[in-house]
């Protein structure tokens, strides 16, 4: 029996296209033909409003998910960190691809001397309140300005601005082959839950698409990103909450690190946990979330809710 043509829904940015084409290549390797269907998202159409003012949860995924539920496409490809922890009714995860680079990068305008100057009131650009909070915790004397747009647009804005630098996800710059030679890895900055991972979703009643995409699933990445998103869900956070998480597997152990910051970076709570794979290791993100709340993180969450 001939496999059906799988319609892949994607945003039309360079990075989104890279992700969709990667899924298309992987499907072809498994014997499935597919075609791309380009769809504009709310996040792409509004390039001015800061993400944290757009109620960001799902801002880059809602339009694609609507097209999926309407039957215009068979699968949708998302940057996993943009996907709400609670999927839309009728939509299920079909595959998590092997994770790319999860690190954040600083792209400086004219060198990094300002990082060593404790008197510097440098101006650094980012639209992420997670990056903003962690940056201000480390460099409280600096100022943060908003930066929106796709990777190409943000690099252009940096070049045309008087900013000292801008923060990017390494995966986005590397996948589009736009990583500047002077980019600095921010190894001290914990990433967004599921940063660097790609999620493929489909309708829960589409057995054919679900079966095809399940062949692309990378088990280790799926385990780690589940833990990170469980942590996010327990803390009831989204893109508008300064929550970070990273789970990594080494030998037979999963190591989890997570934190939550106040918007201004002054207050924060962090946690680290290690679990042997198997047994209850699949719940490590939930455990970490509950423990950090018990340690006092609920105070930051209450502050954020009041300010929102």
Automatic annotation (TrEMBL):
Question: Which stretches make up the Porphobilinogen deaminase C-terminal domain?
Answer: 223-293
Q: Which cofactor does it need?
A: dipyrromethane
State which Enzyme Commission number(s) the record gives.
2.5.1.61
Write out the entry's keywords from A to Z: Porphyrin biosynthesis, Transferase
Q: Which InterPro entries match?
A: HemC (IPR000860), Porphobilin_deaminase_cofac_BS (IPR022419), Porphobilin_deaminase_N (IPR022417), Porphobilinogen_deaminase_C (IPR022418), Porphobilinogen_deaminase_C_sf (IPR036803)
> Matching CDD domains, A to Z?
PBP2_PBGD_2
What cellular component terms from Gene Ontology apply here? cytoplasm
A Gene Ontology molecular-function term?
Answer: hydroxymethylbilane synthase activity
Q: Which Gene3D superfamilies match?
A: Periplasmic binding protein-like II (3.40.190.10), Porphobilinogen deaminase, C-terminal domain (3.30.160.40)
Provide a GO biological process annotation. Answer: heme biosynthetic process
Q: Is Repeat one of the keywords UniProt gives this record? A: no
Q: Does the keyword Transferase apply?
A: yes
Catalysed conversion reaction: 4 porphobilinogen + H2O = hydroxymethylbilane + 4 NH4(+)
Q: Which parts pass through the membrane?
A: none
Report the superkingdom from the record. Bacteria
Q: By its UniProt entry, which Pfam families does this protein fall under?
A: Porphobil_deam, Porphobil_deamC
Record-annotated Porphobilinogen deaminase N-terminal domain positions: 6-208
Give, as in the UniProt entry, the pathway in which the protein acts.
Porphyrin-containing compound metabolism; protoporphyrin-IX biosynthesis; coproporphyrinogen-III from 5-aminolevulinate: step 2/4
Q: What does this protein do?
A: Tetrapolymerization of the monopyrrole PBG into the hydroxymethylbilane pre-uroporphyrinogen in several discrete steps.
Q: Which NCBIfam families match?
A: hemC
Kindly state the subunit structure of this protein: Monomer.
Family under the similarity heading: Belongs to the HMBS family.
Q: Under which name does UniProt file this protein? A: Hydroxymethylbilane synthase
| Source organism | Flavihumibacter solisilvae
